[in-house]
Structure formats: structure tokens, C-alpha cells
Amino acid sequence: QVQVEESGGGSVQAGGSLRLSCLISGYTYCMGWFRQAPGKEREGVSSIHVNGPTYYADSVKGRFTISRDSAKNTVYLQMNNLKAEDSAMYYCAAGRWSGRSCVDFRYWGQGTQVTVSS
Fold it and tell me: What pLDDT does 28 receive?
């Protein structure tokens, strides 16, 4: 059983930065960050495979960076130049590699809130 725990959310002004952390208790090939704002569907933000391949949603490309420290069993999401539309609950999840992308995210954390004021 993989357990996932996020941290690092908070409130910042537009243009600011935050770094989210995700601690994983077990081994997983893929980790992903998702977000859900009130009244909106959950969307994929970024994912990373243990060997490096990454994915970014178009809305965060160039502003967010995902990284993985396998020694610490931790995945990070560095978020720069934050915008009001980035405000959401951010979730970390563990998934598997399909051979082409990270999929089937079965293990989820409780989420961490990110609020960006304009």
C-alpha cells in the first residue's frame, strides 16, 4: 500500500512562488500533481516517472517544475509566477507507467490548499 502526504501549500500574491512537497511511503514509478478549484473538475498539472520523463499541463508550462528526490521518497512541485487561476486544492498521487505516460493514479493524498491573490 502506497501512502501519500502533501505539504507546502499556502497563500501568496500573484507573481509569487510556492513549493509543494509530496512524501511517498512506498515505491511507485509515477507521481503526479493534480488540482481542483471550487466548482471545477480536477485537472492534471504535472507528473514524473522515476527515470525522469515529465508531463506538464499547458497552463503551467514554463512556470511549474516537477522533480523527484528518490533518496527522500519525495516529489516536489516548484510553482513560480503564480496566477490567481492557479488557486486550488493540490493533490499528489501515485500511479503506474503505461509505457508512454503515467496513468492509473490510485493512491492519493489529502491535498494542500494553494491560494493566489491578485
Answer: 87
